[in-house]
Amino acid sequence: MTAEAVSERAPRAATGEGLRKSTILGGFAVLFLVTACLGAGLGALPISVTHQLAILADGAGLGRLADFSKAEEIVYLHVRLPRVVLGALAGACLAGAGASLQGLFRNPLADPGLIGVSGGAALAVVAVIVGAGTLGTFLGAETVYFLRPVAAFLGGLAAVLLVYTIASRGGFVDVPTMLLAGVAVNAIAGAGIGYAIFASADQELRDINFWMLGSLAAATWDQVMWVACLAAGPLFLLLRLSHALNAFLLGEQEASYLGFDADKVKRIILFSAALMTGIIVAFTGVIGFVGLVVPHLIRLAFGPDHRLLIPASFLLGASLLVGADIAARLLVLPAELPIGIVTSLVGGPFFFWLLMRRRGGLMNA
User: Fold this and answer.
1) Cα–Cα nearest to 315, from 112, 93, 92
2) Do the strands 172-173 and 168-169 form a parallel or antiparallel pair, or are they unpaired?
3) Residue 260 φ then ψ, to 5°
C-alpha cells in the first residue's frame, strides 16, 4: 500500500469514527429527551407533550401555543420539571463518577458505592442531620442545610483517598485490595450511621431514614441550581480527561510515557468523583448502582474508548435515573417508592450477572 493511500484512508477512518460517535450520542440524547418528557408528563395529573411545550413557550414569552390549565402549569413547572432536571443531573454525575473511577482503577467493578465514596458521604450528611439542632443555634437553620453538600463532599473525598492509599503499592492500584478496603469503609460508615440512628431523636430518625432510601420528591429549583453549579466543573473536567483515561487503560507508567501527568490526573478524577457523588448524596440521598451499571453497559456495547464512554454515560445515566423515578412514582400509586429501592432492584441482579460473567470468563480462560 502506497503512502498516498494510507494518507487518504486515515481521514476517512477519522470521519467514520466521528460519525459513529455522533450517531451513538445522538441516539442517547433522543432517549433522554423521550424519558424526560415521560417523567414530566406521567403522574396523577397527566400532561401531554403538546401541553409541556406550550407551557415552556408561554413561560419564554412566545405566546400560548395550546390551551393548558393552571393546574398543569403549576405541576409541570414547580413539581415535575425540577424533579426531572435534578434526576438527570444526579444520573449524569453518578454515571460519570463511575465511568471515571472504572477507567482510573482499570476495573469495571469500581463504583462510588462499592469503594466507599457514597458511604463516606452518607456518614458525613447523617452527622450534619443529627447535629442540626446544635449547629443551627450557632449558624442558623439555612446555613446548616447547605452544610450538607460540603460535608458530603469531604466525607466522600476522605473515603476515596483512604481506599486509594490502602490499595496503592508502588504506584499500582491492587483492585482486590481496593474492593476490600471499600467494603471496610462502607462497614465503618454503616456502623456510624447505625449509631446516629440509635442516638437520634424522633424527627432526626425520620429525616435519616427517608433520606437514606434516596428520593427526588423534594426537588426544587434551588437544589437544581446548587447541583448544576457545583457539578458543572467536574463534568467538564471528566470530558477533558477522556484521552488521559484512554492512556490509563495501558497502565500508569505507560500513560506517563505518553505525556500525561499520572498523579495530576488521578487527583483530578478522585476529587471530581468525590465532589459529584457528595453533591448528589447531599440532595437526593443514597442512590446505588447507577455508577456501576451505566458505564459497564456502554463499555459492553460500544467499547472502552472514554471519548465516547464518558459523554454517553452522562446521557444514559440521566435517562436511567429519570426512568427509575418514573417507576418509583407509578409502581405503588398513590404512594411512592424511594428511588434507591428501584435502582437497587435493577442494579443488584445486574451485579450478580456481571460477577457470574467474569467468573465464567475466568473459568473458560
Assistant:
1) 92
2) antiparallel
3) -95, 140
What CA–CA distance (Å, rounded) separates 98 from 88?
15
* The dihedral sign for the CA sequence 299, 303, 308, 310: positive
pLDDT in tens, 233-244: 999 999 999 999
Dist CA 81 CA 58 (whole Å):
15
The cell numbers describing 297, all together, are 453497559
pLDDT for the residue numbered 144: 65
In the chain, what is the straight-line distance between the N-terminal and C-terminal CA atoms, in Å? 37
User: Phi/psi at 288 (nearest 5 deg)?
Assistant: -95, 165
* Residue 355: pLDDT over 80: no
- Check residue 365 and give its pLDDT: 35
> pLDDT tens across 139-171, in order?
666 666 678 788 888 888 888 888 888 887 766
**Cβ neighbours of residue 304 under 8 Å, at least 6 residues apart?**
103, 246, 249
Alpha-carbon gap, residue 98 to 86, rounded angstroms: 18
